[in-house]
Amino acid sequence: MSVLVVLFGSAAGLGLAYLALGRWLSGVFGVDANAVVPSIAKEDGRDFVPTRRWVVFAHHFTSIAGTGPIVGPAVAVFWGWLPALIWVLVGSVLVGAVHDFGSLVVSLKNGGATVGEAAGRLISPRARWLFLSVLWLALTVVLGVFGLVIASVFNLYPESVLPVWAAMPLAILLGRALKSGANLTVPVVGGLAVLLGCVWLGATSLPIDLAEILPAVGLSSWSPVVVWTVLLLAYCYAASVLPVGLLLQPRDLLNSGLLFLTMAALVVGAAVAGATGDASLDSAPMIVAADARPFDAPAILPFLFVTVACGACSGFHCLVASGTSSKQVKSELDARPVGYGAMLSEAFLAVLVILACTAGLGMAATGPTGEAFASGRAAWESTYVPGGSWASFRLPQMIGAFVAGGANFLQEVGIPAWFGVGLIATTVAGFAATTLDSATRLQRYVVQELAGGLAEKAPAFHVLTGRHPATLVAVLAGGAIALIRAPGLGYGTGGLILWPLFGATNQLLAGLAFLVIAFYLHRRRAPVLWLVPAALLMIAVPAWAMAVQVFAPETGWIARENWLLSAMGCAVLLLESWVLVEAVRMWPRVTRADVAPTATPA
């Protein structure tokens, strides 16, 4: 199969799915152009803000994407590029986009409530508490991990630091234009031009490497990762409590613009490389035989489905859809492009990553000084080393595979390697930052919802319903995870401790969100059976993967006496099982009540 067939066939298939299945879903879910949405009914200028469709799309897309559609596919090609490609395309259309669209509509129909709060109304009050507990755990892991991801990108690619941080003041300036209601074309184009200029400066004159700066100012004992993590969490605190129109929306708008520019360049570069024969999918195996995989690689089933999450289906998306996007959508008609369309756009990004990590890497493998030393299968193997260690393929190699392969594509359209590397690294770090600040705001909502319920019995918890105390709890919990030491590593690597939990927990969250969506449809007397295969897939397969991780006789966490991961894995499985039992118990008892809004913290 050629690069051109995969590239344009994927684009056509995803586009047709949006036009056909997206329209059908709008009817099934009862999308109403005349409905009063939460952003208008509860407008407060801070969290509930009616916003233009493409601005909400930019926020939603950048928040759900992050590094997920990059890291997951980059790892999954260990099993071969074909299984990863099939799961991305089929999963995004029939599972992931349905999950995202459904989560957004359910929130819109329930006053902008998070999916956990909606579970309390649509399933039962007990389900609300169980769901919010899973959300809190999942978001704590996200905050702990993504701070480490961005800090690692900054260390690997110092040229990305300047443009990523420059995006923040640029976003504030853009936010003024956004608030005024003016045409955004000139401000956005101008902001992107400045951002690209910062990429050039970072790559040529102003790379910011804390590993060199800290010793020079007498702070040689300080860890660059710790410093970056603290600075990032401080930024996330501010982004969480400020009005969305001041920083969150315009920053996401800039980052989405940068990403679409990068994606467009990658598409053209990949098309040119495929047409000229410079890039070929023969550079990487289509399907890797079991005896040729790394000796410690997990089985493709069930682990493909928890390795490739963003890009196919990700539980984190239901948090963004119901936590922030539903509070900004100004018409239910916008749910289709925002919920369904953004997921398919992310799937196309995952396709580009698969191509970059296979055909792109095979174009040339370069040494530290930029000289090419291999091409074709040898170039791919220089990064993936079939038969080597799965565990040794860590974050730097995951991101590096995409950056190197993508830079090779960009060279096909005349973009020099040094600028291509800086551009892609900036895009990756900027995307991860939008996920991190959105996750902080989402965790603030979860803390507020939990505290609001607890305050009914213990009034002391009422203090945590305020946005500043709730945000502080969110940041401190994520920071505590991020800043501790992983075994054998330095401070600031704590995210690696819980990283093994992330994949299965994230996908189990998608399964639980499907339960809430099913109850919404059931209460409306809408068809539900069509949803069952996707729901069962996202409930059963991640649970299978989590059970293998915990209980496998020789390699499981219990067998290796990793009691922290064992306890947390068992807790996640217990919570999921409890929610399932609650759902089965309540299914026959539901009544028609799907539109009255629930309370949501301001």
Which properties best describe this structure?
single chain; 602 residues; mainly alpha; two-stranded antiparallel sheet; globular; disordered C terminus
Could you explain how this protein is built, in words?
Residues 594-602 have low confidence and may be disordered. By secondary structure, this protein is mainly alpha-helical. The protein has helices at 3-28, 38-41, 53-65, 68-76, 81-109, 115-122, 125-156, 161-180, 185-204, 210-216, 224-241, 248-276, 300-307, 316-323, 335-363, 377-384, 395-411, 417-455, 467-483, 495-523, 532-551, 563-586; strands at residues 365-366, 372-374. A hairpin with a 5-residue loop joins strand 1 and strand 2. The longest helix has 39 residues, at 417-455.
Strand content: under 5%
Largest sheet: 2 strands, antiparallel
The rounded Rg comes to: 23 Å
The structural class is mainly alpha
- Order of SSEs, N→C? HHHHHHHHHHHHHHHEEHHHHHHH
What is the average per-residue confidence, as pLDDT, rounded to a whole number? 89
The DSSP helix count reads: 22
Strand arrangement in the largest pleated sheet: 1-2
How far is the first residue's CA from the last residue's CA?
52 Å
What global shape is seen?
globular
DSSP strand count: 2
Fraction of residues in helix: 55-70%
| Uncertain parts | 594-602
What is the subunit arrangement here?
single chain
Would you spell out the secondary-structure blueprint of this structure?
Blueprint: H1 3-28, H2 38-41, H3 53-65, H4 68-76, H5 81-109, H6 115-122, H7 125-156, H8 161-180, H9 185-204, H10 210-216, H11 224-241, H12 248-276, H13 300-307, H14 316-323, H15 335-363, E1 365-366, E2 372-374, H16 377-384, H17 395-411, H18 417-455, H19 467-483, H20 495-523, H21 532-551, H22 563-586
Antiparallel strand pairs: 1-2
